[in-house]
């Protein structure tokens, strides 16, 4: 079989021999797409609340949720607080995180002051 090919404006003639006359193979066939089920049930271990340390009295300890800087402390030892009262504001990556009291009670100790750096899960307030 003769072919004529043009490259960069120049025409060339080439003789080509076809060695196999078979048709090209068909692409593989795949089963039709079926979307995954719409109801996902996470393992029970993932749905349980995480409590760092998990020891006795852990519910009266407030830990830092982020690594960051203490911006404002709204409480002092001896002060009464209600569950979910704003007790502290932390800054992490230019974002402010409000820290709330984990339970109702009297503040036993405050471990940080404005300007202090804190790490994730560091104890920042204890309530009695």
Q: How does this model look, in words?
A:
With 128 residues, this protein is mainly beta. It has a domain at 60-127: RNA polymerase II/Efflux pump adaptor protein, barrel-sandwich hybrid domain (OB fold (Dihydrolipoamide Acetyltransferase, E2P), Beta Barrel), CATH 2.40.50. The chain contains one helix and ten strands, in the order ββαββββββββ. The longest helix has 4 residues, at 44-47. The radius of gyration is 34 Å and the shape is elongated.
Please write out the topology.
Blueprint: E1 2-7, E2 10-15, H1 44-47, E3 61-63, E4 68-73, E5 80-81, E6 86-92, E7 95-100, E8 105-110, E9 117-118, E10 123-127
Antiparallel strand pairs: 1-2, 3-10, 4-6, 4-9, 5-8, 6-7, 8-10
Within CATH, the superfamily of the domain at 60-127 carries the name RNA polymerase II/Efflux pump adaptor protein, barrel-sandwich hybrid domain
- The whole-number mean of residue pLDDT values reads 84
Low-confidence stretches: none
* CATH hierarchy, class of the domain at 60-127: Mainly Beta
Shape: elongated
């Amino acid at each position: 079989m003769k072919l004529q090919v043009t490259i960069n404006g120049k025409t060339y003639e080439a003789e080509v021999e076809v060695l196999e006359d078979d048709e090209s193979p068909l692409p593989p066939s795949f089963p039709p797409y079926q979307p995954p089920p719409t109801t996902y049930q996470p393992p029970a271990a993932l749905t349980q609340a995480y409590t760092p340390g998990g020891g006795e009295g852990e519910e009266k300890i407030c830990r830092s949720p982020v690594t960051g800087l203490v911006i404002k402390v709204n409480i002092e030892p001896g002060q009464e607080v209600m569950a979910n009262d704003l007790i502290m504001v932390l800054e992490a990556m230019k974002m402010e995180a409000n820290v709330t009291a984990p339970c109702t009670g009297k503040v036993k100790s405050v471990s940080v002051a404005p300007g202090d750096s804190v790490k994730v899960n560091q104890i920042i307030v204890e309530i009695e």
